Amino acid sequence: MARPIQTFYYNRTKLGIYLLFNLFLFLLAVFFTLTIFPNYKFVYCFAIGSCVISVICALFVFLVPQKLAIITPLGIKIDRALPIKWNNVVAVKKITLDGLFAKEILKIYTKPMPKYKYNFMQRLTSKSEFGAFSIPLYAMSEKDINAIEVLIKLHVGAIR
Prior knowledge:
Radius of gyration: 19 Å
Oligomer: single chain
Order of helices and strands: EHHEEEEEHEH
Number of domains: 2
Structural class: alpha+beta
Distance between the termini: 27 Å
Shape: elongated
């Protein structure tokens, strides 16, 4: 029996918090540029302009559902990257990233794939702790975390 295609999205509550944070930064930028730099038009335009762009992007991400992962019987597609076939996956580890806030990810280890076209973000993170193929569990709801772990275990075997 073929398993259906499962699509997972970023958690809307966490995206809402991100939007509120950006709105707060925007208000902070308006307040400080008007009180500290009222005569410096370039500083005002740069600070407010960059915050407006940030708020617009956060609003877009909040309003338009963002796909985090698509799991099919043939492979997995993370964000906007090309899909990875299950036979190329060697192992999956649950890793806690250190930093200001501890964040959990599922890091996917693959066989060498010389013909795979990495996107910009994958090339940027491939040598880091995050890795080129990672699922950010901190950006998902608890229900989705459990569901995606079960599906990955079905295809890979175990999550270390």
